[in-house]
Structure formats: C-alpha cells, structure tokens
Amino acid sequence: MTEEKNALVFTNDNCIGCNKCISVCSCMGACVSHVVDGINRIDVDSDKCIACGACFDVCEHHAREFADDTERFFEDLKKGERISLLIAPAFKANYPSEYGTVLGGLKKLGVNRMISVSFGADITTWGYLNYIDKYGFTGGISQPCPAVVGYIERYLPELLPKLFPVQSPMMCAAIYARKQMGITDKFAFLSPCIAKKMEIEDGNNGGYISYNVTFDHLMQYIREHGISGENATDEVEYGLGSIYPTPGGLKENVYWFLGESVFIRQIEGEKHMYEYLERNREKIAKDKTPYLFIDALNCANGCICGTAVEEDKANTDDALCALLKIRESVKKDKGMSAWAKKLSPKQRLKN
Ligand code: SF4
Ligand code: SF4
C-alpha cells in the first residue's frame, strides 16, 4: 500500500487496475495510475479528490476505502473525555429499530448529550430565507453538501461567490449547541457522509466538531463490540429540518414557508450534478438563471443514501419511507407554530 493510507479516500491492495474508477470520477487527476511491482493500480490524489464516493459504487473489487474518526471517538470515550453527539437525521431513518438501543449503548459508554441535527437544519432554513429576504440574493447554490463545496473550491472557483454564506445543518447545530446551549464538550457527528470530514476539518469551521463518525464504520464497530443499551433518544425539538437528507429536502422546506410558486432548481448525482455545474458555470456566475436558488447534492438519493451509509441500506427505499413518516409526524395539526399544517406559508414564515 502507498502513503495515501492516511488519506480520506484511498486504494487498498485489492486493486487490479481495471480503470473503472477513472471513468466515473468527476475530478480530473484524482485517480492516478501507478505501476507497483509490475502491477497497475489506481491511487487517489487527496488534493484533487472531493470524496464523492462514485468510485466505491463501481469498484467490483472493493479496492476503495475511506477514513473516518470512529476508532478515535471510542478511544477518547474510554479515556473519559466529555463527548456529545450531533446526530444526522439520516441515522434514525436508516436504523429506525436500532436507533434507541445504539444511542443507549453509546450513553452507557459515557456519551453526554445527544442532539439531532434536524433542528440545525431548521436553523439553516431560517438562514437561507433570511439571507434571500435581506439581500435579494437569488440564483445562489445551497451548501449543505461538502462534496459540492469541495468541487466548487477546487474546480469552479468563479462560483464561490454564488455559494450561500449559510452553514450546513451540522455546523448550525454545532454552533447553536456551543454558543446558545453552552455545551463545552467535544462534538462527534454521526454521519452518513465521507466528505463531512473535510468540512469538519476546514480551518474556517473553527474546530467546533472533533469527529466524523460514519454510519458504516460506527455500525461495524457496534456489532463487533456488542454495544447496546436501554432505549435512549435525542433531545431538542425539531421540525421539517428532519427531511433535509431526502433529495430536494431543502427545497421542500423553502416551499413550506414561501409557497410552491418559487422556482428552485433541484439537482443531484455524483456525476450528473458536476456536469450540470460545469455546463451552466457561466450562467450561474453571471446571475443569468431564473432560479431562487439551486439545491445541489452529490448523492442521487440524498444523504439518507450517503457515501458512508452501509451498502445494503443504501440500496433500499427503507430509509426514505421511514423519513416520510418522520416528515408527517413533525407537522402539527393544532397550534400556531411554524410547523402548523393549517397555516398559509406566509403565516408559517412569520411564526
Ligand atoms: S475500479 Fe477498483 S479495482 Fe478498478 S482500478 Fe479502480 S480501484 Fe482499482
Ligand atoms: S471519491 Fe469521487 S472524487 Fe474521489 S477518487 Fe473516487 S470518484 Fe474521484
């Protein structure tokens, strides 16, 4: 194996140099051909890779792997460090029946607070609506997805001014938990996404979060170590932010508050989305689109089937169905809250 072992995405010794990864990779130069001991292999250039996960899907030899912080998270818990969880809404959707016992097991190991990022997504929606209203900023690109942001930073820098200056739900939740709830613990993000590690470690994000604990590596660790406990649940009430992980989740949130006549361009897919940005780069940069904004995600089926979701889960509709149930459960039949069904979008927005 090469020095890329410490990289976020790397090639293991199963690689037979079939080149399939090159054909799906949107990032020119991220897949690099090497001959090692007379055998061709394709390594990953970390500076160019945006951790989109496309190569994992096509590699039949299980030759691509990724790094996260699961091991370090459990080691630090054992050492007695105070750690609180920020839980991606996709976790409950992917593991509806294990959710409580996994959280209970983590609590037994010493995890302190357990906060669903759904409420961070509600803050994000508020941020988008406010920013559009205050600055008349239209035709921008949403930025909850670190792979999209990574691509724009590396390959389409002229679109950087079109990225909304609103943090992702994960970061909104972390900032709120630190500044408003006064939680001083380290935060671990239970994550459906490989690329979140890039966002967590980005110097602009102030070290708010310390661990990207992916579903894939977490559940493997949980099973191997028999971790389980009495049912526990997350705290902090949330609304429609819970559906952010579905394709167009942000769009649906904005419709809830502005009505469905606003024009939002939803686009997702590991290859398709980047081709779309490339094709429309000039129009977007020069404000020549008719869109309120562009809701862009790397993963074709949203974060519920993210790059770090276990393969057997990502291949079914189970998580989507669970999430649709959660969506209906957060809408309120009574009262005047922002989540009241009977109110008009305008009244919800005001509330
Ligand atoms: S698709 Fe897999 S086996 Fe084929 S070259 Fe890429 S990493 Fe190697
Ligand atoms: S994760 Fe995406 S960007 Fe990185 S090498 Fe694989 S296909 Fe290319």
Polypeptide structure, described:
With 351 residues, this protein is an alpha/beta fold. The protein has 16 helices and 11 strands. It has helices spanning 20-24, 54-58, 70-78, 89-94, 99-108, 118-135, 146-155, 169-179, 196-201, 215-224, 249-258, 272-279, 281-285, 311-314, 318-330, 345-350, and strands at 9-11, 31-36, 39-44, 64-66, 83-87, 114-116, 140-141, 186-191, 211-214, 264-268, 293-297. A 4-stranded parallel sheet has the order 6-5-8-9, sandwiched between helices. A hairpin with a 2-residue loop joins β2 and β3. α6 (118-135) packs across α8 (169-179). The model has no long low-confidence stretch (mean pLDDT 88). The site of one iron/sulfur cluster has 15 residues, from α1 and α2. The site of one iron/sulfur cluster (SF4) has 14 residues, from α1.
**Poorly predicted parts:** none
Number of helices: 16
Intertermini distance:
56 Å
Q: Order of strands across the widest beta sheet? A: 6-5-8-9
Q: Main β-sheet: number of strands, strand sense, barrel status?
A: 4 strands, parallel
What share of the residues lie within helices?
25-40%
Give the C-alpha Rg. 20 Å
Could you say which structural class the secondary elements and strand pairing correspond to?
alpha/beta
Shape: globular
Q: Based on the structure, what is the oligomeric state of the protein chains?
A: single chain
Order of helices and strands: EHEEHEHEHHEHEHHEHEHHEHHEHHH
- What's the β-strand tally? 11
Strand residues, percent:
5-15%
Nearest-integer average pLDDT: 88
Q: List the bound ligands.
A: iron/sulfur cluster
